[in-house]
Amino acid sequence: MTPPPARAVRLVRLLRPGGNPLARGVDRVEGTAMLLSVLLALMLVPVMLTLGSVTHADLAEDSAHQASTRHETVAILTHDAPAVTFGAGGEIVSGKSDVRARWRLPDGTVRTGLVPAEDGMKAGTEVPVWLDESGSSVDPPMSTADAAAVGVLVAVGGWAAVAGLLALACWGLHHTLDRRRHRAWTAEWAKVEPDWHDRRR
Description:
By secondary structure, the protein is of the alpha+beta class. Helix content is 56%, strand content 18%. It contains three helices and seven strands; from the N terminus they run H-H-E-E-E-E-E-E-E-H. The protein has helices at residues 6-15, 25-69, 144-200, and strands at residues 71-77, 85-86, 92-93, 96-104, 110-118, 126-131, 137-138. The protein has a five-stranded antiparallel beta sheet with strand order 5-4-1-6-7. The longest helix has 57 residues, at 144-200. The relative contact order is 0.14.
């Protein structure tokens, strides 16, 4: 029979320190905690995949509803867009700003409101705008690609976050038990050190 690889043996000894005759109670506690963390992380894989799938299905349904109830038209700016946009810290950033504009509904009614426009645009410029069923300006409908990306992010990101917390908990437990082991070794060495020195003389 081929002997198991040395790396696998070390992993088994790490997860099952009870097989080592020198293992202490704290070693068994740490090994059990690591084993339970690994098992929990593996058990969470199908859970997170299901959660990501459900999230994607919900968002895909919302995306389809938005696509069927929103339509794109053209609005005309009634005011100039700002030349620049200032960030929260006062820094100058480029991008879009909400600017007052007007647009016409299919029944001929004229509506006014704020629409996103590129900085620097002048009054009278035509900009695309999405409207809901009531004729109000809204965000563009979510795409199916965005819905899929969010579902993947929920599944992968959620599992990674939980696995990271489990790894962090194992790391903290390891260092806590290491300090306890060090204190125990120091106390035991203090007991045997005099006899050890006597035997060397």
